Amino acid sequence: MQLRARDRVPELTALLSVVSLAAVFGAVGGAVPPSLLPQAPEAAVDAIPHVNAVLSTTALVTIPLAVRAVRRGRIGRHRTLMMATLGLFAAFLVLYLYRITLRGTTAFGGPDAVYRFVYLPTLGVHILLAVACIPLLYYVALVALTRPVHAIRESRHPRVGRIAASLWFVSFLLGDVVYLLLYVVY
Description:
Four Helix Bundle (Hemerythrin (Met), subunit A); 7 helices; single chain; transmembrane; globular; 0% strand; mainly alpha
């Protein structure tokens, strides 16, 4: 399996990216009927945005710790932290897609000026970065999981990983700002 995946990283990256983005846009666009999903108690569905904020904020800690670890040559710690961050992201995404499929998007309750000049630009950049991160994250994860450490260093993983980690961090940060605007401030 590793040898085949190793030889197909670009193709697997493209396939996984298309499937992931189709799932997200399908859920947001209402293509997934809510009746297909198991029904959680209302309180659990109501808690999802708050749980996701905790997951995002935790990722804001694990990403810089992972970057610091790799800079110090602690490859095992870097891998552990990045896999933890991927797990946080996967949990976030599953919960987000579940809630959005059941309830749809959350309306902004603040003033129109904040909506136009703060909320929408923040949300737009967050979404663009999240979409841009998907193929980068798949690529660096697949390279890391299919190669020995010495080969990872010689690949594009370090360069692409720096870009992916930076964009991912900002996307998580802006996601937390969106959460604060939707559920705390307004």
